[in-house]
Amino acid sequence: MSNKKRRNIRKKLYNDSDDGDEKQETIVLDQTHEKSRDKNINDSVVMTPPPRLSFIDEIDDEVIMSPSIKANPAVKNINQNANTQISKTEETNLEEIKSKNQAIQSSSTKTKDLKIDKGELILEEEPYAAVVDDNNLDKFCSGCFAKPTRLLRCSACNLLHYCSERCQRSDWKQHKEECKTFVRLQRKPPASIRVFCRILKRRSVDKDSFAAIKNLNTNRTKFKQEEIETFAQLSILVKECIEPLAAGEMIELFCRLTCNSFSVLDEEMIGIGVGIYTNAALINHSCVPNCLATFDGSKLMVRNIQPIQKDEEITIAYTDLGIPTMERRRELNERYFFLCQCELCKQYESKENVDPRSALRCKTRGCTNPIEPPDPLEMQEEIIVECSICKQIITYDTADVENQIKESIELYEKGMKLLVQDVDEEKAISQLERSFELQKNLLHISNQNLIRTQKSLIELYSKQRNWPMALSHSQLLIDAYRFLFTEWHPLIGIQLLVTGRLLLCMHQDDEGVRNLRDSLRILEVSHGYQHSLTKSVADILKQMERDISIRQGKFD
């Protein structure tokens, strides 16, 4: 294979819809920008954590003062089988919560008379309504949710972007009226208002379909009064955009969307938008789910990442499974009004089992056993523990541990602040590296703070094309994810893909191909053979394997 063709293969690593029936006039698209090659490389290599998007985006203080309500990569339905409902409280004792729980009838999301092998498509669903979030409007197509090299901006509202006139025409039924509103309003409506208005727009032309929205549980009585007041204030913003429902119905719809909205994720499991999926919203939560939701554009797909037995309930995760159990439970309680009683959460109720997401590292070289961090409430000068794996007696100075953790977090936050301010990228990297140096010898490899720091460093080093440094952190992340998640979890597959791409950038083709093979094996289960990401990895792998075979004289 020629060097030119080889270069083309490497370039492909980083460049990874019907016309409307109505012959209606659309707004001209501006050819606003074309992303630089550097940007494409960074976007392809970097894998950052999926954010928990806010359904109620930040609004001007004059409009709203209450904290935002979050929408996660999955949603809550009122039916809980493994979980039980609880009232929402500011601070709630675990035992008090348990005493108040009431059993909820099992949902209908169970397999009937069959066993399902891993990697099967359980559900495929187009959104009732979906929008690209505020931070990604100039990066993703508002029609197909793709991330092209070149985007065209709507020349009227200057807010939405499309990858082609074809995509703009397909979205015009939705955008036509809102476009006029965006032009008229001085402040552009946030994603929460835009998706809300699209739901009302669809209701106005297809009232029967709205029954699926009304079927979603509101949890109306469980929201705090200040949150209800927030919804009332947001309703005023909606009136600026579209003819609203009655006041009570508006509040109930905000409640429904808050509890049942999904973060739309891109190929690398990064949140790019918010959508409503009325069928997927009926699936219950577990912190050890047998299924997960991925997206191809705005289309949601639920696949099982482990075999499902007959009569076993189908579950997905509503929240980031990389955060510590106590935080995860508190988040589920505050956002979805239930105490998670899944096997993973119950496992860490006892101090005999240590959650690696918040754990310290065992001091014995090579030992991966998580060690319980000191409890500030116990006021101990030092903690002495026997590692259950290596059997070594380990002593930690409580004050020293707490100071190092505090300092590492402060360094991380300083580094990220420098990046946001776009002041000094090199200084930001220096701060993050200092944070990492403190964390790597103290925290468990799967500690959420260490993982967060490494993800940021991968992003920065990739932007600088410092492949060796990005690679070293990416390989450590693979180990962290394998410790945390099941074999077929997509974050492992995606991190293997990131690592494979970095290796190919360094011309370490054999090792890069091995990582791509491992990545493809997982993605075929988590995303399916027909997913655009899976196909892209398969194409790259096929070409690289051909290249290697030619070099080794095994291919004519």
TrEMBL record:
UniProt cross-references to Pfam families, sorted A to Z: SET, zf-MYND
Occurrences of domain SET (ranges): 214-319
Keyword Acyltransferase on entry: no
Record GO terms (molecular function): zinc ion binding
Biased composition range(s): Basic residues: 1-12
Residue stretches of biased makeup (Basic and acidic residues): 31-41
GO cellular component, one term: nucleus
Keyword Membrane recorded: no
Protein name (record): 14536_t:CDS:1
